[in-house]
Amino acid sequence: MGFDLNANWDTWVQFFQDNWFVLVIALVVLWLVIRIVRTVVKWLIVAVIIVGIIVYSGYTLDDLKNIDLKEIGATVTEKVKEQAISAMAGEAKEATFTNNADGTFTVKSKNVELTGTPGAGEVKVKFQGATLGTWKIDDTIQALITQAKTNG
After folding, report:
1. Rounded distance, CA 143 to CA 152, Å?
2. Which of 25, 82, 132, 101 lies closest to 123, judged by CA?
3. Average pLDDT of every residue of the chain
4. Where are the bilayer-spanning segments (predicted)?
5. Model pLDDT, residue 101
6. Could you tell me if 34 and 42 are in contact, meaning their C-beta atoms sit under 8 angstroms apart?
7. Residue 6, Cβ neighbours under 10 Å: how many?
8. Letter string b/e over residues 68-82, b meaning 16 or more CB atoms within 10 A of that residue's CB
9. Which of these, 33, 97, 104, 114, could form a disulfide with 123 (CB 3.0-4.6 Å)?
10. Helix (H), strand (E), coil (C) string for 114-130
């Protein structure tokens, strides 16, 4: 059984809209417990409240067992890649190109940093400081590199 992130998100949004008052009360109680109680009992109370909210939401342990974490991870990774590619296209005019002493190059913009070796066909990609791995140079990445060289 797969886990549809969008359908799950819609379910949670509807739950929050329908039960916002109960959730606000739970958050206030959590805040008070965390601020006032200073022992292990505090964390037991916090855990009971969180489990209570989950049970109140209608999810069962079987529902939680059926969540495919690999599918969620793949979906999140794909969304981050889309954001990085969008940032590359939008920030190309601000990008700078640097030839490094070790023979590699670095292209930097506000949110994206590419590091690679000329002719290698791939670059290491960082988006907002987080490493996204090594990507093959496609048209978007090549356009960013070319624009960064032109920028000076």
Report:
1. 15
2. 132
3. 76
4. 20-37, 44-61
5. 92
6. yes
7. 8
8. eeeeeeeeeeeeeee
9. 114
10. EEECCCCCEEEEEECCE
Average pLDDT rounded to a whole number, residues 68-72: 65
Is the CB of residue 88 less than 8 Å from the CB of residue 108? Answer: no
Residue 66 neighbours by CB under 8 Å, 6+ apart: 1, 3
Reference 107, options 121, 130, 120, 91; nearest CA is: 91
**Sole residue written with tokens 């008052």:** 21
Helical pair 20-36 and 5-18, crossing angle rounded to 10 deg: 90
**If you search the block for the tokens 């990609």, which residue do you land on?**
125
Domain ranges of the chain: 5-67, 71-151
- Which pLDDT does position 102 carry in this prediction? 92
Which residue spans within 42-129 are E strands per DSSP? 96-99, 105-108, 112-116, 122-127
What would the two tokens of residue 15 be? Answer: 């739950």
Q: Which tens digits make up the pLDDT trace of 96-149?
A: 888 889 989 999 988 888 899 888 889 998 888 888 788 888 888 888 888 888
Alpha-carbon span 107 to 85, nearest angstrom: 14
